[in-house]
Amino acid sequence: MLEKEELKRREFYKGNQIKLLQDQWDKAKEDHQKQISENSEQFKERIKQIENQVQKKKEKEIDDIQEKVKQLENQLDESKLKSEEYQKQIKQLKEMKEEEQKEDLKNAMNLEIKFDTLKRKEKLNKEKLDDKKDEESKIKTKEQTNKQDKNKAILDGEVELPENIVLQKKLDNMKELQIQYVSEVEQMQSINQQKEKDKEIALKQEIDVLEKKYKEKEKEL
């Protein structure tokens, strides 16, 4: 009997303890929620203040940007260099570079063609000179059949015909002209290559400057 009463008393005490803990827990939750709500209101108020500050800052920045845009538009109107014209100039510069490259290539090809033509002409002239030399040699041989000593000297190469001397001189002159022409062609090609490099460097620099200006204008806009 005493054990049952003790058990009931313990269960009652235990129940009271649980209820007390539950009440404490509920109150703690309520206080926590209340604190959260208060913090939330404070947070919302702070956010509102920040939003107002940000809005004012944005409005000021927008006003500043609009003023800058207006100034830039005035500058662009005065200089007539709007963004489309920048792009147009860049495109024109690129097209000019391509045309110059084509022209240089065309000139180089023409020089090669002229050089090949000169070589062919030289070959033909040499062949003609050789043919003429052989023909004249035969004629001279026939005409001088009675001059055995002179014919022997000519055949041995001890005496050189005046015609052969003239032909040889012409041939030497043509060889000298060929060497001079080749030297001039190589020099011209070297100059053209250097000019092309200089033009390409200058064009790239000018394009970089224009693109940089264009990007800066876009950023400011």
Automatic annotation (TrEMBL):
Protein name: Uncharacterized protein
Region (Disordered): 124-155
